[in-house]
Design goal:
Shape: rod-shaped
CATH topology of the largest domain: Beta-Lactamase
Largest sheet: 5 strands, antiparallel
CATH architecture of the largest domain: 2-Layer Sandwich
Helix content: 40-55%
C-alpha cells in the first residue's frame, strides 16, 4: 500500500514513531556498548580484588593456604569463576592451578597489575598478572600472582545488562505508540466533526462552514467556503439564465402558435401568403434565439476545443458575406476593408458568430435613417481588430452597459438581446476585448483579439468594460 493511500491517522502515527524507532535502535546499540565497557570495568576490578586477596594470603601464610574469605571472593567475584596461579621467589610454584594460560609479556613490574586476553582450554579469558616482593621459607624474591576469568562470563553479564535496557526501551516505545495512536485520534477529532457536518448537509445547502476548526484546517475550510460560493453563484446564474431563456422563448413560441392557428382560416391567397411569411419570420427568430442561447451555454462551460490558427480577415469576410443578402435586401450599403495578414489563435466558429452578431446588431438597431454598414479590419500593436460601424442612430453613453447585458435591449426591436453579450463572452474566452463608441452619428463596435504567438494585450487577460 502506498503511503499516499494511508489514512491521515496512520500517516501521522508512522511519521512520529519512525524516527523514534530509529532513535531507540541507536540507543540500544549504544547501551550495549556501554554494558560491555561496564562489564569489563567491573570484572577487571573483581580480578584485581581477587589478586590482591590471594597475594595477601600468600604473604601471611607463606604460601601454605588461602583463607576462607579469599576463597569466597574468588568464587563470587564478578559473578563468574576465577582461576589463579601463584609462584614464589625463583619461580617456584606455590598454589593455584598448575598450568596458567600462555602469555608472552615482559617481566612483571613490582606492584603494577598487567591485563591481557589469552586462551585457556580453548576459551578466551581475561588475565591479570601482578608481582610483589615477599619472603617465603626464608627466601625473598618476587611473588607473581596470575588470575584469569572466562570472557563468556563477561559477555553474559553485558547481555544481561543490555537485555534489561532493551526491555525498558521496548516498554517505553510500546507505551509511546499507544499514547501517539490515541493522541492522534484525539487530535483529528475536529476533522471528523467537520466531515460529519458536511455529510449531514443537503445538496441544496451551500452556506459557508462556520464551525470552529484548528488553525491548520482553516485554509481547507476557507477554500471549501470559496468553492461553495462559486458553485452557488454558478447555480444562481444558471437558474437566472434558464428563467430568462424561458421568458424569452415564451413569446416567440406563443407567436408561432398564434400564426399557425390563424393560417388555416386564411382563405384569401394574398392574406394566406402574408401569414405564411410572418410564420416563417417568427420561426426564423425563434431558431436564431435558440441558437444564440446554445452559443452562450457553450461559452459558459468552456466550449473552446476548436481553437486553431486562423486569418481574421477570412473569418470576417465570410461573416459579412453571410449577411450581405439581408443587408442588400434592406437597401443598405455594405463595405469591407481588409488589412494585411491577421493570424490569431481562435475558434473560427465562435469568432465568426461574434462578428455576425456585431453586423446583425447594426442591422437590427441602426434605425430607419441608417444607409450603410462598414466592416473594417486593422492591426493595433500585438492585436487584431474588427470594427463594425454604421451611420444609424447610435447609442448614448447611458445605454452602453445595457446593450451588453444579457437579454438587454436599448429599444424594442427584432433582436434577441443576446448578440452583444455573446460577443463579450467570445472576446473574454480568447483573451480579447470588445469596445463600443457612444455617439449620435451612428454605432461603432470593435472586437480585438491577440495575434497568434502573442499574449493577451490586456493585463488581466480578459476584456474590459466597454
Amino acid at each position: 500500500m502506498r503511503f499516499a493511500n494511508l489514512s491521515l491517522r496512520l500517516r501521522l502515527f508512522l511519521l512520529i514513531l519512525s524516527p523514534l524507532l530509529v532513535a531507540s535502535v541507536l540507543l540500544g546499540i549504544w547501551r550495549y556498548q556501554v554494558a560491555r565497557d561496564t562489564s569489563d570495568l567491573l570484572f577487571d576490578r573483581g580480578l584485581l580484588a581477587a589478586a590482591l586477596a590471594i597475594s595477601r594470603d600468600v604473604a601471611i601464610s607463606e604460601g601454605d593456604a588461602l583463607s576462607p574469605a579469599t576463597r569466597s571472593v574468588i568464587s563470587d567475584a564478578g559473578g563468574g569463576e576465577v582461576f589463579y596461579h601463584v609462584t614464589g621467589p625463583g619461580g617456584i610454584y606455590v598454589t593455584g592451578y598448575a598450568y596458567p594460560p600462555s602469555w608472552r609479556v615482559p617481566d612483571a613490574v613490582d606492584g603494577r597489575p598487567q591485563y591481557a586476553v589469552a586462551t585457556y582450554r580453548g576459551e578466551p579469558v581475561r588475565i591479570l598478572r601482578m608481582s610483589e616482593t615477599t619472603t617465603i621459607d626464608n627466601l625473598t624474591g618476587q611473588t607473581v600472582v596470575t588470575v584469569w576469568q572466562r570472557m563468556s562470563d563477561r559477555y553474559a553479564f553485558a547481555r544481561q545488562l543490555s537485555y534489561r535496557a532493551a526491555v525498558l526501551i521496548g516498554a517505553l516505545m510500546a507505551t509511546l505508540a499507544v499514547v501517539v495512536w490515541f493522541g492522534v485520534q484525539r487530535g483529528l477529532s475536529p476533522l471528523r466533526g467537520l466531515r460529519d457536518a458536511i455529510e449531514r448537509r443537503s445538496p441544496d445547502d451551500l452556506t459557508p462552514i462556520r464551525r470552529p476548526v484548528p488553525s491548520e484546517v482553516r485554509g481547507v475550510v476557507a477554500t471549501l467556503n470559496r468553492l461553495f460560493g462559486q458553485v452557488q453563484d454558478s447555480i444562481q446564474a444558471h437558474q437566472a439564465f434558464i428563467s430568462d431563456a424561458a421568458h424569452q422563448l415564451r413569446n416567440p413560441a406563443a407567436a408561432l402558435l398564434s400564426l399557425a392557428e390563424t393560417l388555416p382560416h386564411a382563405r384569401d391567397p394574398e392574406e394566406r401568403h402574408r401569414r405564411q411569411q410572418e410564420l416563417i419570420a417568427a420561426a426564423r427568430r425563434s431558431a436564431t434565439l435558440a441558437e444564440k442561447l446554445l452559443s452562450m451555454e457553450r461559452l459558459r462551460y468552456g466550449g473552446m476545443s476548436g481553437r486553431q490558427a486562423i486569418d481574421l480577415n477570412a473569418v470576417a469576410e465570410e461573416a459579412a458575406s453571410d449577411l450581405a443578402p439581408l443587408i442588400l435586401s434592406r437597401d443598405l450599403a455594405l463595405s469591407f476593408d481588409a488589412a494585411g495578414p491577421l493570424p490569431v489563435m481562435a475558434d473560427p466558429v465562435l469568432v465568426g458568430e461574434a462578428i455576425r452578431n456585431l453586423i446583425d446588431n447594426a442591422i437590427q438597431h441602426g434605425g430607419p435613417t441608417m444607409t450603410a454598414i462598414a466592416v473594417t479590419l486593422s492591426r493595433t500593436g500585438d492585436a487584431a481588430r474588427v470594427t463594425v460601424s454604421d451611420d444609424g442612430r447610435g447609442l448614448s453613453p447611458e445605454d452602453l452597459e445595457l446593450a451588453f447585458r444579457r437579454f438587454g435591449q436599448v429599444r424594442s426591436g427584432q433582436g434577441s438581446g443576446l448578440g452583444l453579450s455573446i460577443v463579450r463572452q467570445v472576446a473574454e474566452a480568447h483573451g480579447g476585448q470588445v469596445d463600443a463608441r457612444a455617439s449620435e452619428g451612428g454605432g461603432c463596435f470593435s472586437l480585438t483579439l491577440p495575434l497568434a504567438g502573442r499574449s493577451s494585450p490586456y493585463p488581466d487577460g480578459r476584456s474590459g468594460n466597454p
